Amino acid sequence: TSHQPLDADSITLISFFLEHQKKIPNATGELTQLLTSIQTAAKTISSAVRRAGIIKLFGTSGTTNVQGEEVKKLDVLANELFINLLKSSYTVSIMVSEENETVIEVDKERQGKYMVAFDPLDGSSNIDCLVSIGSIFAIFKKPDNSVPTVKDALMSGRNVVAAGYVLYGSATMMVISTGDGVHGFMLDPTIGEFILTEHNLKIPKRGNIYSINEGYTHQWDEAIKEYVQNKKDPSKGKTYNARYVGSMVADIHRTIKYGGIFLYPATTASPKGKLRLLYECVPMAYIVSNAGGSASNGKIPILDIQPTNIHERTPIFLGSIEDVEEIVDIIKKQC
Ligand code: AHG
Ligand code: MN
Ligand code: MN
Ligand code: MN
């Protein structure tokens, strides 16, 4: 059998960011240190996800979280991994996790200058049926570079210095941006390294896929109904394909790769939408914007929203710039 030659000069995630760090005047290396700990969390979660059925990590933990959701066993493991690895990176002082009601403070002797908001396991409802799931994180820094405290937790997306997601899909991939392009690293399980496979990912200007949970159609505003109807009406132009995984990371990675739009609008049941601003919408908006796309709450860019609560939710319309423009125009017309 012909084995792929082991590429002797493949670029690993850390060597890529070390090179990036060298270009930044008086860089301390702390961000690279932080990314190294996130990388370890991703590798460990990837291994746990792929063996969950064997090591009895399917099913629920028996607890309910601040979101009112049933917490899965893998949610708990992923959350503890992120918290412990971020603490031991000596680069973080406060964290916000989907799974923790209040801000997590790092002990004084291990504090660093970053705040990290993360969704340790995204798409938990898809764990037991082996459909793709993910992890999402955003790294924030205060403008004055001082150590953030609990009262600094409510930073807007304009304070993000890096954000990424890990997709535990048919392969495990980390997609990450520090503001200078968006880059994809595939986990090679035979050597346990994330290898650069997609340099400078760019989202097409327009796609032909719309991604939304149509089960809520009866709960949408008229503008959303009109937009989705248009995508299925040949008299309005070329119809789109419908794709919805129900894991934000999977739906958004496909949107970046193929183009199109991901929508989670307000519903009568969730008037501010379901997705959480700090650790789902902001990181994804930062990444997609750096890939040449856009992300709006229907009125303003997601990155401009000033949070008032660490678990606040927001409607989100994200993806190819022309597709997002189209629905925002319909929403504005209806107001
Ligand atoms: P999480 O599993 O971290 O709570 O996130 C689930 C989210 C997101 O992954 C996905 O886009 C959305 O829930 C799907 O919601 P619906 O099932 O309401 O469509
Ligand atoms: Mn959840
Ligand atoms: Mn999530
Ligand atoms: Mn989650």
TrEMBL record:
Subcellular location: Cell junction; Cytoplasm, Myofibril, Sarcomere, Z line; Nucleus
Listed pathway(s): Carbohydrate biosynthesis; gluconeogenesis
Statement: the UniProt record of this protein carries the keyword Nucleus: yes
Major enzyme class: hydrolase
InterPro entries according to UniProt: FBPase_C_dom, FBPase_class-1, FBPase_N, FBPtase, Fructose_bisphosphatase_AS
PROSITE patterns: FBPASE
Fructose-1-6-bisphosphatase class I N-terminal domain: residues covered: 11-198
One Pfam family recorded for the sequence: FBPase_C
Annotated keywords: Calcium, Carbohydrate metabolism, Cell junction, Cytoplasm, Hydrolase, Magnesium, Metal-binding, Nucleus, Phosphoprotein
Reaction catalyzed: beta-D-fructose 1,6-bisphosphate + H2O = beta-D-fructose 6-phosphate + phosphate
Cofactor: Mg(2+)
Listed GO biological process terms: fructose 1,6-bisphosphate metabolic process; fructose 6-phosphate metabolic process; fructose metabolic process; gluconeogenesis; sucrose biosynthetic process
EC number of the protein: 3.1.3.11
Domain Fructose-1-6-bisphosphatase class 1 C-terminal: 203-330
Gene Ontology CC annotation, any one: cytosol
Molecular-function GO terms, alphabetical: fructose 1,6-bisphosphate 1-phosphatase activity; metal ion binding
Record carries keyword Oxidoreductase: no
Subunit organization: Homotetramer. Interacts with ALDOA; the interaction blocks inhibition by physiological concentrations of AMP and reduces inhibition by Ca(2+). Interacts with alpha-actinin and F-actin.
Its biological purpose: Catalyzes the hydrolysis of fructose 1,6-bisphosphate to fructose 6-phosphate in the presence of divalent cations and probably participates in glycogen synthesis from carbohydrate precursors, such as lactate.
NCBIfam families: PRK09293.1-1, PRK09293.1-3
Protein name from the UniProt record: Fructose-1,6-bisphosphatase isozyme 2
Species the sequence originates in: Psylliodes chrysocephalus
